[in-house]
UniProtKB/TrEMBL annotation:
GO terms for cellular component: myosin complex. GO terms for molecular function: cytoskeletal motor activity. InterPro entries: Myosin_TH1. This is MYO1H protein. Residues 43-213 form the TH1 domain. Pfam families: Myosin_TH1. Transmembrane segments: none annotated. It comes from Certhia brachydactyla (short-toed tree-creeper).
Length: 213
């Protein structure tokens, strides 16, 4: 009888908790479940991220330049966050915005859209197993795309989770060790190397590879 009552009590407590969840809190928990499936036991910093709630967005829609809003009019903006984008050739760091809508991801520079990636064409998303915020968005090899997108995000777990949910690409997120290959464009590839050091930095090494410490 004690065991039966214990189970009934537990079910009642769970039911009460679930019925008391706000819509916002429910979305948070659903996103955290995806984050766990993608990163748990794979990427450093995941455990520390558990207590940090995801924000709906890091920047509001009215923080975007009106010209950008006009260019993506008709699309429902879901998430905006500042990022650092690294050029595919010289690996120069550029301040950009990553704008996620219901159907596409945009890399934005002030009033310009530098790259648009439709979720239906997105080939995959890669991050390292270390505590850096590097995210590589892999795109198809066609004339519409300049090559894969190399970004550095302050809130990497949040950003990748939002992106893979909107794109429905949870199964195509890879957490890599050591290095990864990315497409530069015109059939060319580059290599990114991940390593550990006394302080975080991202630079082009003597061999021409992008090194992330």
């Amino acid at each position: 009888t004690s065991e039966l009552l214990r189970n009934i009590c537990m079910r009642n407590l769970v039911r009460k908790y679930c019925r008391g969840l706000t819509a916002e809190r429910k979305v948070q928990l659903q996103q955290k479940v995806v984050t766990s499936a993608v990163f748990s036991g794979k990427k450093e910093g995941y455990l520390e991220s558990l207590s940090q709630p995801f924000l709906e967005t890091r920047l509001k829609e009215n923080d975007l330049n009106p010209k950008v809003l006009q260019l993506i009019r008709g699309e429902n903006i879901k998430y905006v966050t500042p990022v650092i984008k690294y050029d595919r050739n010289g690996f120069k760091a550029r301040e950009r915005l990553l704008v996620l809508t219901q159907s596409s991801a945009y890399v934005v520079e002030m009033a310009k859209i530098k790259q648009k990636i439709e979720y239906s064409t997105l080939k995959g998303i890669s991050t390292s197993n270390l505590s850096d915020g590097i995210v590589v968005i892999h795109v198809p090899e066609d004339n519409k795309q300049k090559g894969d997108v190399i970004l550095q995000c302050e809130h990497v777990f949040e950003t990748v989770t939002k992106l893979c949910i909107l794109a429905n690409k949870q199964s195509q997120v890879k957490v890599v060790k050591g290095s990864l290959r990315f497409r530069v464009g015109s059939g060319k590839e580059g290599t990114m190397v991940f390593t550990v050091g006394p302080e975080p930095q991202v630079f082009k090494d003597k061999t021409g590879q992008l090194t992330v410490v």
